[in-house]
Amino acid sequence: SDPPSHCSPSNGSSRTLSAREMYLFDTGGQYLDGTTDITRTVHWGEPTPFQKEAYTRVLMGNIDLSRLIFPSNTAGGIVESFARRALWDVGLNYGHGTGHGIGNFLSVHEWPVGFQSNNVPLEAGMFTSIEPGYYQDGEFGIRIEDVTLVVEAQTEKPFLTFEVVSLVPYDRNLIDLSLLSPEQIRYLNSYYERIRAHVGPELRRQRLEEAYAWLQESTEP
Protein backbone atom coordinates (compact mmCIF):
# COMPACT_ATOMS: atom_id res chain seq x y z
CA SER A 1 0.00 0.00 0.00
CA ASP A 2 1.10 3.55 -0.58
CA PRO A 3 0.73 6.34 2.01
CA PRO A 4 -0.88 9.56 0.78
CA SER A 5 1.68 11.66 -1.09
CA HIS A 6 0.60 14.96 0.41
CA CYS A 7 -1.16 15.20 3.75
CA SER A 8 -1.59 17.59 6.67
CA PRO A 9 -1.35 16.79 10.40
CA SER A 10 -4.40 16.95 12.65
CA ASN A 11 -5.04 16.36 16.34
CA GLY A 12 -6.69 13.05 15.53
CA SER A 13 -3.95 11.66 13.29
CA SER A 14 -0.75 13.10 14.76
CA ARG A 15 1.57 10.90 16.80
CA THR A 16 4.93 11.21 18.49
CA LEU A 17 8.00 10.34 16.44
CA SER A 18 10.40 7.78 17.86
CA ALA A 19 14.07 6.98 17.22
CA ARG A 20 13.04 3.32 17.00
CA GLU A 21 11.22 3.66 13.66
CA MET A 22 11.64 4.82 10.08
CA TYR A 23 10.48 8.27 9.10
CA LEU A 24 9.49 9.19 5.53
CA PHE A 25 9.29 12.89 4.76
CA ASP A 26 7.94 14.19 1.47
CA THR A 27 9.05 17.82 1.09
CA GLY A 28 8.68 20.49 -1.53
CA GLY A 29 8.12 24.11 -2.35
CA GLN A 30 7.32 26.36 -5.28
CA TYR A 31 9.72 29.15 -6.19
CA LEU A 32 9.87 31.58 -9.10
CA ASP A 33 12.72 29.59 -10.66
CA GLY A 34 11.41 26.08 -10.07
CA THR A 35 9.40 23.54 -8.08
CA THR A 36 10.88 20.97 -5.71
CA ASP A 37 9.44 17.58 -4.73
CA ILE A 38 11.97 15.58 -2.71
CA THR A 39 11.39 12.57 -0.45
CA ARG A 40 13.90 11.09 1.96
CA THR A 41 13.52 8.24 4.44
CA VAL A 42 15.58 8.14 7.65
CA HIS A 43 16.03 6.00 10.74
CA TRP A 44 17.53 7.67 13.82
CA GLY A 45 18.04 4.43 15.73
CA GLU A 46 18.99 0.86 14.87
CA PRO A 47 17.17 -0.33 11.72
CA THR A 48 16.43 -4.03 11.29
CA PRO A 49 18.39 -5.96 8.64
CA PHE A 50 15.25 -6.14 6.48
CA GLN A 51 14.68 -2.38 6.75
CA LYS A 52 18.27 -1.76 5.63
CA GLU A 53 17.95 -4.20 2.73
CA ALA A 54 14.62 -2.77 1.58
CA TYR A 55 15.95 0.80 1.79
CA THR A 56 19.15 -0.12 -0.04
CA ARG A 57 17.21 -1.83 -2.84
CA VAL A 58 14.98 1.24 -3.23
CA LEU A 59 18.14 3.37 -3.43
CA MET A 60 19.65 0.97 -5.99
CA GLY A 61 16.56 1.41 -8.16
CA ASN A 62 16.73 5.18 -7.84
CA ILE A 63 20.41 5.12 -8.88
CA ASP A 64 19.92 2.62 -11.73
CA LEU A 65 17.19 4.68 -13.39
CA SER A 66 18.95 8.02 -12.73
CA ARG A 67 22.16 6.89 -14.44
CA LEU A 68 20.45 5.10 -17.31
CA ILE A 69 21.41 6.09 -20.88
CA PHE A 70 18.58 5.46 -23.34
CA PRO A 71 17.63 6.30 -26.95
CA SER A 72 15.89 9.56 -27.82
CA ASN A 73 12.11 9.35 -28.20
CA THR A 74 11.85 6.67 -25.48
CA ALA A 75 8.70 6.72 -23.36
CA GLY A 76 9.16 6.66 -19.58
CA GLY A 77 7.02 3.55 -19.24
CA ILE A 78 9.61 1.56 -21.19
CA VAL A 79 12.49 2.30 -18.76
CA GLU A 80 10.73 2.50 -15.39
CA SER A 81 11.42 -1.16 -14.58
CA PHE A 82 15.08 -0.19 -14.00
CA ALA A 83 13.84 1.47 -10.78
CA ARG A 84 12.15 -1.78 -9.71
CA ARG A 85 14.72 -4.42 -10.68
CA ALA A 86 16.66 -4.51 -7.38
CA LEU A 87 13.35 -4.98 -5.53
CA TRP A 88 12.04 -7.55 -8.02
CA ASP A 89 15.24 -9.57 -7.53
CA VAL A 90 14.02 -10.52 -4.04
CA GLY A 91 10.27 -10.54 -4.71
CA LEU A 92 9.46 -7.00 -3.55
CA ASN A 93 7.65 -4.19 -5.38
CA TYR A 94 5.79 -0.89 -4.89
CA GLY A 95 2.28 0.01 -5.94
CA HIS A 96 2.64 3.56 -7.25
CA GLY A 97 4.14 5.27 -10.28
CA THR A 98 7.91 5.64 -10.55
CA GLY A 99 7.75 9.36 -11.27
CA HIS A 100 5.81 12.31 -12.65
CA GLY A 101 6.45 15.51 -14.57
CA ILE A 102 7.22 18.59 -12.50
CA GLY A 103 6.08 22.03 -13.63
CA ASN A 104 8.15 25.21 -13.41
CA PHE A 105 6.13 27.20 -10.84
CA LEU A 106 3.10 25.22 -12.06
CA SER A 107 1.71 21.82 -11.02
CA VAL A 108 3.92 19.71 -8.76
CA HIS A 109 2.53 16.64 -10.58
CA GLU A 110 2.43 17.82 -14.18
CA TRP A 111 0.99 15.76 -17.03
CA PRO A 112 1.97 14.46 -19.60
CA VAL A 113 5.59 13.72 -18.54
CA GLY A 114 6.34 10.66 -16.42
CA PHE A 115 6.81 6.91 -16.34
CA GLN A 116 3.32 5.53 -16.95
CA SER A 117 2.51 3.68 -20.17
CA ASN A 118 0.43 6.58 -21.50
CA ASN A 119 2.99 9.38 -20.92
CA VAL A 120 4.72 11.18 -23.79
CA PRO A 121 8.28 10.20 -24.88
CA LEU A 122 11.05 11.77 -22.80
CA GLU A 123 12.87 14.74 -24.34
CA ALA A 124 15.81 16.86 -23.24
CA GLY A 125 14.61 19.74 -21.04
CA MET A 126 11.82 17.85 -19.28
CA PHE A 127 11.74 17.67 -15.49
CA THR A 128 10.50 14.48 -13.87
CA SER A 129 10.70 12.87 -10.46
CA ILE A 130 12.27 9.46 -9.92
CA GLU A 131 10.74 7.90 -6.80
CA PRO A 132 10.83 4.15 -6.16
CA GLY A 133 9.66 2.93 -2.76
CA TYR A 134 8.68 -0.01 -0.61
CA TYR A 135 5.88 -0.22 1.97
CA GLN A 136 5.39 -2.83 4.67
CA ASP A 137 1.77 -2.58 5.83
CA GLY A 138 1.46 -1.38 9.41
CA GLU A 139 5.23 -1.25 9.93
CA PHE A 140 7.17 1.20 7.77
CA GLY A 141 7.34 2.97 4.43
CA ILE A 142 10.33 3.84 2.25
CA ARG A 143 10.46 6.25 -0.65
CA ILE A 144 13.46 8.01 -2.19
CA GLU A 145 12.37 10.77 -4.55
CA ASP A 146 14.64 13.03 -6.57
CA VAL A 147 13.92 15.73 -9.13
CA THR A 148 15.71 15.04 -12.41
CA LEU A 149 16.25 16.88 -15.66
CA VAL A 150 16.32 14.94 -18.93
CA VAL A 151 19.59 15.84 -20.68
CA GLU A 152 21.57 14.69 -23.71
CA ALA A 153 24.03 11.90 -22.92
CA GLN A 154 27.70 12.09 -23.95
CA THR A 155 27.25 9.49 -26.70
CA GLU A 156 28.08 9.53 -30.41
CA LYS A 157 24.46 9.20 -31.45
CA PRO A 158 21.82 11.38 -29.71
CA PHE A 159 20.85 9.44 -26.58
CA LEU A 160 19.41 10.80 -23.33
CA THR A 161 20.01 10.42 -19.60
CA PHE A 162 18.94 12.09 -16.34
CA GLU A 163 20.67 14.78 -14.28
CA VAL A 164 19.60 14.71 -10.62
CA VAL A 165 19.04 18.32 -9.54
CA SER A 166 17.86 17.71 -5.95
CA LEU A 167 21.01 17.82 -3.81
CA VAL A 168 20.09 16.07 -0.56
CA PRO A 169 22.15 13.22 1.00
CA TYR A 170 20.65 9.77 1.55
CA ASP A 171 20.55 8.23 5.04
CA ARG A 172 23.88 6.41 5.58
CA ASN A 173 22.36 4.58 8.55
CA LEU A 174 20.09 2.64 6.17
CA ILE A 175 22.54 1.74 3.37
CA ASP A 176 23.89 -1.81 3.19
CA LEU A 177 27.05 -1.20 1.15
CA SER A 178 27.53 -4.92 0.49
CA LEU A 179 24.50 -4.86 -1.84
CA LEU A 180 25.79 -1.98 -4.00
CA SER A 181 27.83 -2.54 -7.15
CA PRO A 182 31.10 -0.62 -7.70
CA GLU A 183 29.28 1.50 -10.33
CA GLN A 184 26.52 2.39 -7.87
CA ILE A 185 29.09 3.36 -5.22
CA ARG A 186 30.95 5.52 -7.77
CA TYR A 187 27.67 7.20 -8.68
CA LEU A 188 26.92 7.90 -4.98
CA ASN A 189 30.38 9.38 -4.39
CA SER A 190 30.08 11.60 -7.47
CA TYR A 191 26.63 12.75 -6.30
CA TYR A 192 27.99 13.54 -2.84
CA GLU A 193 30.83 15.59 -4.38
CA ARG A 194 28.23 17.63 -6.28
CA ILE A 195 26.24 18.21 -3.08
CA ARG A 196 29.34 19.44 -1.25
CA ALA A 197 30.35 21.71 -4.14
CA HIS A 198 26.93 23.32 -4.59
CA VAL A 199 25.32 23.31 -1.14
CA GLY A 200 28.36 23.60 1.14
CA PRO A 201 29.42 27.16 0.13
CA GLU A 202 25.83 28.39 0.43
CA LEU A 203 25.52 27.04 3.99
CA ARG A 204 28.80 28.75 4.89
CA ARG A 205 27.61 32.01 3.27
CA GLN A 206 24.53 31.88 5.51
CA ARG A 207 26.76 31.02 8.53
CA LEU A 208 24.86 27.77 9.11
CA GLU A 209 27.87 25.99 10.59
CA GLU A 210 25.90 23.19 12.28
CA ALA A 211 24.14 22.40 9.00
CA TYR A 212 27.49 22.58 7.16
CA ALA A 213 29.06 20.09 9.59
CA TRP A 214 26.06 17.75 9.12
CA LEU A 215 26.40 18.04 5.34
CA GLN A 216 30.11 17.17 5.42
CA GLU A 217 29.46 14.16 7.64
CA SER A 218 26.53 13.00 5.49
CA THR A 219 28.51 13.22 2.23
CA GLU A 220 31.66 11.35 3.29
CA PRO A 221 32.82 9.05 0.47
TrEMBL record:
InterPro entries: Creatinase/aminopeptidase-like, Pept_M24, Peptidase_M24_C, X-Pro_aminopeptidase_P
Keyword Cell membrane listed: no
Source organism, top-level taxon: Eukaryota
Signal peptide: none
Sequence ranges assigned to domain Peptidase M24 in this UniProt record: 7-151
Keyword Plastid: no
All copies of domain Peptidase M24 C-terminal, residue ranges: 158-221
Cited Pfam families: Peptidase_M24 (PF00557), Peptidase_M24_C (PF16188)
A molecular function (GO) term: aminopeptidase activity
Keywords: Aminopeptidase, Hydrolase, Protease
PANTHER family: XAA-PRO AMINOPEPTIDASE 1, XAA-PRO AMINOPEPTIDASE 2
Similarity section: Belongs to the peptidase M24B family.
Listed name of the protein: XPP2 aminopeptidase
Species of origin: Vidua chalybeata (Village indigobird)
